[in-house]
Design a protein that fits this description.
Distance between the termini: 70 Å
Number of helices: 11
Number of strands: 10
Largest sheet: 6 strands, mixed
Radius of gyration: 22 Å
Shape: globular
Strand order of the largest sheet: 3-2-1-4-5-6
Order of helices and strands: EEEHHHEHEHHHEEHEEHEHH
Strand content: 15-25%
């Protein structure tokens, strides 16, 4: 990918706060659920200015059905002799260490990587990620949609093998470099998000395997019935103000922190975790508000406030206590319900 030198950011104008290196990553997986596995991974390492330093690619044996072969082209026969994730975890980590993870819809790639490391009882050395979808929005690029091929076409990058991890990572690296330089020229703050490694892993949780009856997915963690929130709903979240105990919070899409752990934190803070979105929902947490899921569509329809995972994490640090009188009224109501049915 060539770039007009007259439009590149000069050394003097390069933002000092920008990261010192990037790891452009793409992973192909057996599916999109929590118990799905990585079947191939590619990393292009870039320096501070987005110049390619090297690249790496590997197949990974998922120890189960490979999923949508018609998309990624990786059959069970191809993956049978591939290394397990635990076998490549150290080399993969070495290519990520000390760098910002860059991916297209980065929360998905990071989630899959974090879960694989948790299974291997290790920790991925990633502390920040950058989503090229978010960066294209910050730059105001005139894109018809946020697909990788659309971003690539905007910068004149030719894609050779879509849904092949190595080629997808190459395409993204070539599209990221001019995006990075455009951000530097405009003094744009990069949309970096924190990556919190998944550290809670239950050894009793097993991953579904191919059996005579076919692949049967197994839950990432056992489902649990949570107690009812003891506080009444104080209404919608207002930007610039703290969350308040009793607020109804819904989640949509992948999160860098395992979803159930994030929900646990919300419950511990005194919030009500809603499984669906209604007019009573106080807040929707999603890293992709343009995903078109039923929850994001309803949030737009109802005017429900939306924040991303990072902002929600900050809000969880200072949740305002429920009003004492409202709490007492809620407790009295619960007693009446128990007494009179």
């Amino acid at each position: 990918m060539l770039e007009d030198p007259t439009t590149a950011a000069s050394p003097a104008s390069w933002p000092a706060a920008y990261p010192e290196g990037y790891a452009v990553v793409d992973v192909e997986t057996t599916g999109l659920a929590r118990d799905d596995r990585i079947i191939s991974a590619a990393v292009y390492r870039l320096d501070a200015r987005g110049e390619v330093e090297d690249h790496w690619y590997t197949l990974v044996n998922p120890e189960r059905d490979p999923g949508p072969v018609w998309i990624h082209g990786l059959t069970s026969d191809l993956l049978e002799g591939a290394p397990l994730f635990g076998d490549i975890a150290e080399e993969f980590a070495g290519r990520l260490a000390g760098r910002v993870l860059v991916a297209h819809n980065a929360v998905f790639d990071w989630s899959m990587i974090a879960r694989e490391y948790a299974r291997a009882e290790r920790e991925a050395p990633v502390r920040q990620r950058l989503c090229t979808i978010a960066l294209s929005k910050e730059l105001g690029l005139p894109l018809a949609n946020h697909k990788l091929q659309t971003l690539a076409a905007h910068f004149g990058v030719v894609q050779q093998r879509a849904h092949h991890a190595l080629d997808d990572a190459r395409v993204l690296a070539e599209a990221f470099r001019p995006s990075l330089h455009a951000a530097a020229r405009g003094g744009v703050r990069l949309p970096l998000l924190e990556c919190r490694p998944l550290t809670e892993w239950s050894a009793s949780t097993t991953i579904g395997r191919q059996a005579s009856g076919g692949y049967r997915p197994v839950s990432w963690r056992p489902s649990r019935r949570r107690p009812a929130c003891p506080y009444p709903n104080p209404g919608r979240y207002e930007e610039g103000k703290p969350l308040k105990q009793g607020m109804r919070v819904a989640f949509s899409g992948d999160t860098s922190v395992d979803r159930e752990l994030l929900e646990d934190r919300a419950v511990e803070a005194g919030l009500h975790v809603a499984t669906s979105l209604s007019r009573l929902t106080s807040l929707l947490v999603t890293n992709d508000p343009d995903s078109g899921t039923s929850k994001t569509v309803k949030a737009l329809q109802y005017g429900t406030p939306v924040v991303d995972e990072a902002a929600f994490g900050q809000l969880l640090r200072d949740v305002e206590p429920a009003d004492t009188r409202a709490k007492a009224a809620a407790a009295a109501s619960e007693v009446r319900c128990r007494t009179y049915g």
